[in-house]
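pasting input
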Amino acid sequence: MALAADSSIYVPEPVTLLETEQPTELEKVFRVKFDSGRPLGHGPGQFVQVSLFGIGEAPISICSCPGNDEYFEMTVRNVGMLTNKMHQMADGAKFGVRGPFGTTFPMDEMKGKDLVMVAGGIGLPPLRSLILPVMENRDEFGKVFILFGTRTPQEILFADDLKAWNEIPNTTVLQTVDQGDDTWDGNVGVVTTLFPQVSVDPDNTYAAIVGPPIMYKFVVMELAKLGVADERIFMSLERRMKCGVGKCGHCQINQVCVCMDGPVFRYSEARDMTEAI
Amino acid sequence: MELYKIDEKGLAEAMARVMEDYRVVAPVEKGPKHVFDDIEDWSDARPMAVGTVLPPKKYAFPQRETLLRFTLTGETPEAEAVMDDTPVVMAGVHPCDIAGLRCIDHTLAGRHFDEHYGARRMNAIVFGFDCMPDEHCFCTSVGTLKAESGYDLFFTPIQTGGFVIRIGTPRGRQLFEKYFQHAEGAGVYEESLEADFRQRKAEAVTAHIDAPVDDLPEVYQESMDSEVWDKWGAVCFSCGSCSLVCPTCYCFDVQDRVSLDGSEGRRDRIWDACTLPDFATVAGGHDFRPTAPKRLIHRHNRKFNYQQERYGEPHCTGCGRCGRSCLVHINMVTVANELIAEQKGEEA
Ligand SMILES: Cc1cc2nc3c(=O)[nH]c(=O)nc-3n(C[C@H](O)[C@H](O)[C@H](O)COP(=O)(O)OP(=O)(O)OC[C@H]3O[C@@H](n4cnc5c(N)ncnc54)[C@H](O)[C@@H]3O)c2cc1C
Ligand code: SF4
Ligand code: SF4
Ligand code: FES
């Protein structure tokens, strides 16, 4: 007999859109809360499945600080069906969310260490869920370098945050764009061109990387040059995802599911997977 | 363990009574092939037929299945989960397909229990049947010649006619007592002529993998760059048939459907296949497995390396379906043996 049940692992929970902000032409930041009032309770690097009935679901990272019981935030690039529909939503709109899912950047392990955090484009939002708690507990960490690359100056996300972080002692924000213009007097080139400005104690350094697929290999090479061990490099990998709970098979890399065993991987593990980077 | 026996007539009689109370599915003839379908008359059933086009997994994990129904009219989107717990007796499930269901259980009933699968799976009653292998079967190479568990009742034909019945679960015992125990020709079976059938069955297998199954993860691990993949990838159509017919494949896509008036809809899951192009494409167009060889490496490694390492048993059951359905004759045994031979050559 077909029966209707209240719940299954695929039933999303309703959320309300509190407000949005649009920092770039393609990206919008969504601040939302669960209608039930429950906190999301995510860790740095985790994601949710955003669910729009009639359209489908998409994995989206949380970009706000863990521990916020009021709301959580996501930065969404408008690239297709679901993300386009999200961009059209007005404040107060209701939609669905499942999660949080996936592994986290190991904050506790990183304590007392120098940090090199490298983001490309839409990779900054997931990394922000790590950077924010680090900044809140700034004296528990060593030197912090934040490296951020975008294609153009117009694609820079969280410009105010970047400025504020750069003003915190012992914290350096380095930015670059692939193509400059009249408004840009900073570094031009891919994100790896920023590495000469990074000085850390390699034996005491952790790294975190989030960016487009092409970026990882080159950033890892730079970190190796600095002398950062593979065990202390963490990366968040993107894959096609349909379920977020280890069922649909889409996100599998070798024997792991990115949605559950990732998205955050230690490079010493990812290194040995033939398809990872 | 107690064994029982039943003759052909007694079985037909018992199954007729099972059919009065349950939906029963079994292999039936369809043109030159066999498919699992609903039966109303046991004489239509071909429970020993080898190589049904699709495995019986379709009753636990249908090709298209509604997960959620939702309404779009209210202010807040609302959804309810849809599950089907209609009991179904699957009669004619061979040891390979019993193993296939267990493989899918590892994933769908593992971490984050999938209630939709669970509802169907727990109500899918397994009447296992022994079978006579054809030239595509290779159960002896992957440990699925005989089912040790995973069935409610298991039927093995005996030379003197009729079947030996093994009871695998408490539910199986209840069904046995209710429908089979008192059927004509039923009785207790003592000495094991079962072994005789199994011997003949093993001898009928002609396709063999040239290495112990426990060695396969390493063989595949070492073969990521093998030219064997390029050779077969060059002829593979990326049609996805091999995955769609496989008893251990569970990958799916999710699609929303909305009613014409836009007031309601449903979210369905549909079988997907890692051998299809775009299976691993993400927004922005990047494809993590852009070529047929890469997709074949993934599929074959899922069977004999990735899932085998993760769950401790091969995720190829030797059923031979992918080989039967592939237009260019790509099959697990040929590929495995080429990889094994290549490595032996390298060692020599
Ligand atoms: C763990 C994780 C975290 C993520 N975090 C974020 C985040 O924080 N912010 C964010 O914006 N994005 C994030 N993404 C990416 C995001 O999930 C995708 O951009 C999103 O799924 C796109 O959905 P869509 O329905 O809008 O696009 P779709 O309509 O699905 O398609 C988007 C584009 O991809 C193409 N495409 C889609 N499917 C195929 C296919 N099968 N073959 C070829 N091309 C195809 C389409 O043509 C289109 O141009 C994340 C992804 C993952 C895995
Ligand atoms: S059935 Fe054969 S041709 Fe089709 S995808 Fe599978 S291996 Fe390739
Ligand atoms: S891989 Fe082929 S032979 Fe092995 S279980 Fe799947 S369909 Fe059967
Ligand atoms: S997204 Fe479905 S298995 Fe990971």
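fyi Residues 223 and 339 of chain B are 7 Å apart (CA to CA).
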